[in-house]
# Entry
Amino acid sequence: MRIFRAFGLTMLITMLVALLFAPPTHGRERKERRQAAQERFDRPWTMSEMLGKPGGLNSIVPIRFAAHSKGLQLLFMANHGELSNPDTRPAGPPTPFHPLSQQINSELEYPAGSGTVFLFSGGLWVGAKKIVGQTEQKIVSTVTDGDNGTREYGPVSSWQYQSKDDIAKEVDDDGDWTTADDLNGDGLPSSDWDGPSADANGDGILNYDPEPHIDEDPIGDMSADYLDNDFDGKIDAADADLDGDKVPGSLDDDGDGENDEDGTARAGQEWYTAYEDTCANCLDSPDVDGFTPLGVRVVQHSYAWSESFADDFLIFEYFVTNIGNDNLKDVWLATFFDFDVGHITQEGNTRSEDDITFFIDSLQTAVGGDNDGDDGLLSAQYFGVRVLKAPRPNITISYLNFGRLGGGDPNDNLEKYDKMSSGVRDPDQLNDEDWRFLFSFGPLGDLAPGETLPVTLAIVNGFNLNLINVNSRQALAMFQADFRGPASPDAPRFEVEPLDRAVKIAWEANAENSLDPISKTKDFEGYRVWRTQNKLDYTLVADFDLVNGLGFDRGLPERNAQGKYEFIDRGLPALTQVFYVVTAYDNGDNGDGIGHPEFDRAKSNVGELESSRGSERQKAAIPNSATVNSLDEIYVAPNPYVGSSEFERAGRFDAAGNVSYPKVIQFVKLPARATIEIYTLAGNLVQTLEHTDGTGIELWNLRTRLNQEIVGGIYLYRVSTPEGNEKIGKFLVVK
# Structure
């Protein structure tokens, strides 16, 4: 059968079938990449700018966003203090997100990728009595009060980021190391010249003892945390060189005469920002009695972990400072949560109007939930907020709730202050409503100019109430241990390669040199390979561990020519997108005394720790998408296409974890580069696809060059290569 080639301009469609993640880099390249990212964004305020004047800052910075995505929780945040509420995100470009953040609008999604969300809006309330003119008034400055918005705070800092997962550069990036600094005599700069079992500089980190002029500003340093970490009366900017030693208050490793005052990251993902209630132009929806600022600044610091024992909770620290000249009387603090538990596919009020809320006294945990689980649509039904640290000892911690449908929302400063300062504990609410709840702390007395009050909370998720109980206790244990916990081994770096009804997974051995920060030992035990199709249900496809008398003693797999371990997952359905993640786990001897909710397979009943299976680490593969040299093996799937196909029903995920269900057929077993032309039986050109991504598969969305959906019928295709080879075939579409 003859095919007539169509002439003219054709539309080229390139469909991506895999996400490409650049491997982590070290040294100057990684440092410069981070610095450039921050400089492209917004210059962060220095500490002297932030805290140098009682009156605070005069400049408000643009609203910017960041997201927690390290563990199983995904949470979107604005730098004016609001948690969740993607309605506040303006359209780009330029992107309003910090360049080191995932660009996701997640409303406390748990687990990541499930589509189950819990929080519409949340944020801090600060209430006090203040003299305005000649009258003492009750004033409450709110980040949000639910549907009314408010936004009575303006951001005075862009987002700033740090992570304990960022490792030392181990290089002399400014070129000032000399042979006189060669303490171990090996002729090379070293960040740990005395070996992993010694601590020459006395900073408490055994594997970080740099020679002079080495690693003076490590990746992930967070000097700008607005706090006097070493309690010497100086804010961070007083350390003029900002050299970034790894531990607060540690030794002067660069010889500038100052102990280094920068903070050290304690979590896998930490975000800082600051906001003030002095910006009248920042208001979104003011109270009915207008806006009167208290004159306070809030520093917000939040933490997320990837380790499996800590990936079900987020910890938030708030520091509230009086930056005005007036004494604030009878101060109360509160945290507000307007929760809507439901699924991202639900529209309108379906999510919000069937919620319940109650308080677990023994855990100091408020719970919000969906009353019926929406007939199995939700992967989890409840979330909790736990008090970890009250602003002052011997005060009342109040749980208060109110419903929108019943007209319970407070609308002015007086109503808000009276509610948050009532000192009552509201009854549990198990009837359907659009509920909100407050955690209120007080009475706190007066807050003088320059004085600061702290409060710390944990936002806790779990698949059921029992796991929320467990995770709530674990969050408290982490906080009481100064955020220290044992660490799982480093997450293995890995890649996937699609094969014929199989996927090859190859990973590096970087996890085997991990040191647990508490036990100070290399406690690596083994690897696991996990597979998921919906990012919710995981299948363990391989488990390897050391032969050392612990666990199963299966041994580790053989290494390939590149020194990487390999495993092939066989017997997979063809042309179905699947996701893989390789984790590393330890031997369970964590040395912290905390009972972790993990499978106990080692000595002393501590429990093993495993690196995260979170969505940010997963990599996609489609079996049967390997390239081939012979065009004879090319085929179309499904053929015939009847309305839809199996791999469409599974959905496809983008980098942010959003799922879609596009109509698509696949050209399979292609060479690395080819042109695919699709024709009607009459010889009319329907579409041209340029296959250039180096895989063996190309997707077509069943749309023409004019972006019209095709009609049912028999279609012809021609695959041609740059070398002049051709393959002609046909397929059937049934509508």
